[in-house]
Amino acid sequence: MKKLLKSFKTEIDPTPEQKVKINKTIGTCRYVYNVYLSHNKALYDKGEKFMTGKSFSVWLNNEYIPNNPDKAWIKEVSSKAIKKSIEDGCTAFTRFFKHQSSFPSCKKKGRSDVKMYFVKNNPKDCKCERHRISIPTLGWMRMKEKGYIPTTKDGYAIKSGTVSMKAGRYYVSALVEVPNVNVRNNTNDGVGIDLGLKDLAIVSNGKIYKNINKSARLKKLEKRLRREQRCLSRKYDNRKKGESTQKNIQKQRLKVQRLHHKIENIRTDHINKTIAEIVKTKPSYITIEDLNVSGMMKNRHLSKAVASQKFYEFKIKLIAKCEDNGIELRVVDRFYPSSKLCHCCGRIKKDLKLSDRIYKCECGYIEDRDYNAALNLRDAVTYEVA
Length: 386
Prior knowledge:
Blueprint: E1 3-13, H1 16-46, H2 53-67, H3 79-97, E2 116-119, E3 132-135, E4 139-143, E5 157-166, E6 169-179, E7 191-195, E8 199-203, E9 208-210, H4 216-241, H5 246-280, E10 285-289, H6 293-297, H7 303-309, H8 311-325, E11 328-332, E12 358-360, E13 366-368, H9 369-378, E14 384-385
Parallel strand pairs: 7-10, 10-11
Antiparallel strand pairs: 1-4, 1-6, 2-5, 3-4, 5-6, 7-8, 8-9, 11-14, 12-13
Helix pairs in contact: 1-3, 2-3, 4-5, 5-8
């Protein structure tokens, strides 16, 4: 049977000593990444050749650290994690040279998402049991979600992974080799999904998934977040007067980070449940629209609402879920007139406004605007398979 690599992420409960080691490794990876960027910038200013990740790794160990004895602490952490941070910097430059992203920027302490990378070097590394996991250079750590990651006793092998820290909580993401049991048994009709701001998703089978941002729970958390952010802002203002200490600022920053993290988890959980419910109907194919999210974000009146819907995350997770269940995912071009096209007669209503929530055609067809778009996406002929 063919095998594939699947990622599993869960929260861990490291000891105080392990927390110190994780924080030290993440900080060192962030520093090396920034040194790699600044070194290549200096080479460019001198007119010299760009240094790749492998060349920089040799220069770091043979020249930079020996010539700077005060930087010997770089070698106190995992060498695999350091090499991975250098590779990430090289990838960022490669994407910039191919015009796929902007110029790479330095990672800031406490703000950027830096991870500790680990890899399986020998059979004794990367073991996993029902309630704990063994990570190289860290040892055994307890997992808060028991039985989520497949255990090595059952024949599963962990190839690599990362350890990350967010809002004072620690997570492990493990890449596990699992058997491919993908079976195509989807005999139902296809569905079209229209993503929007009023509702998260409108499916052509009549199912509507609400916008979680309009829930009372999320509004209460956002109100609390605004209050805590004002409190943090006042502490920074008082620090200039010598009234507030750095420890009080760190405590308040952690409160703000935890609220941000909680809100993000609620939105992500809603997306996961929505996708799982759609895929459980076992459609033969799913059609979505390639939205211009960056263009929608330019509207300052809608930018916050667009960002909170997480359209890109919805698309990425839907692609992964369709691959696991053998469902064909079709992506229609962003210029396809799904909202303006009449599902009954095929006439295009060019004067349709965003405020027109009910679609009315001259042929007498009357339907909800978003549901009409979902039906048109389901029946679209021109598309690309994701």
